[in-house]
Amino acid sequence: MRLLVVLAATLLALAGPVLASPPEPKPPARFRDIGGRSGRLLAFIETREGLAELERAGLRVVIPEPGVYPFEWPAGWPPAHAKTGASVILLTPFAEKRDGRIGAYVLGSWPNEAGAGPSSVPAGAAAYAAGRAAYAVPSGFIKVTKAAAATRVSEHFRLGDFLTKGQANVWPKYLILDLKLVDKLELLIEALREDGHPVKGLHVMSGFRTPNYNAREVGPGGRSAVSRHLYGDSADVYPDDDGDGRLDDLNGDGCVDLADARIVAAAAERVEKEVPELAGGIGIYPATAAHGPMVHVDTRGTRARWGPR
Predict the structure, then answer these.
(1) 92-306 sits in which CATH class?
(2) Do 301 and 134 contact (CB within 8 A), yes or no?
């Protein structure tokens, strides 16, 4: 996915002051898999260092500051890769966070973050995360303004779908989002349709969680202090075509229960079987007083399963 992300910054014809050398007849081999495995990704995320890599490759790309920028594919690139409504996102560096926040937006501290004292990170979480690449401190944040929240990151998902709940009146907000997760969710929608469940999309009940927000329910029977939601590569989802805020009755038996959630989980299993590089967690959660049945999906890179089967 990183190779997909790097491509984005070469394609900023409409993204402000961008100068580029004449395009090649077709992109280099490492840039050919556009749009993810689903073919539906519409946003590309990069660090400042990634833009410097493009400079070394012979392209001059100038983005004035972190944010979301529209672009069009340069003339001469394969028409099969043409996209409309696509964006490239330059991350706000992680180092911009001070005292657990950026500006007025409260983030908190990550389990393996240098300088995060025991008062902000549980000792067990810090010990578990230490030295594990999957729990490395994020490279940066997506700056999300009110307008940018409507930006499509793929055919069915927008930036705003993955924002942490709370701090409703604080803008801009800051988000971590792994495009592999979005790709997997798009493939999950496709798999459900192929299995005879023509869903319109998936509702994201919980996407990225700031450490500050996640900490509210950490403990036995609650959230993990090293939840993948902290790293932007997991989401709790369910089809909700009728818009009632609950999982739809997928098997048509007249009730919404774990049997419907298992249909979603089975489709996610098939996605992982067909696309092993999107391996991760699949968890089934029963209904509670706060929500109906749902399915957790992530792209942590290793297989993990939990919940009633």
Answers:
(1) alpha beta
(2) yes
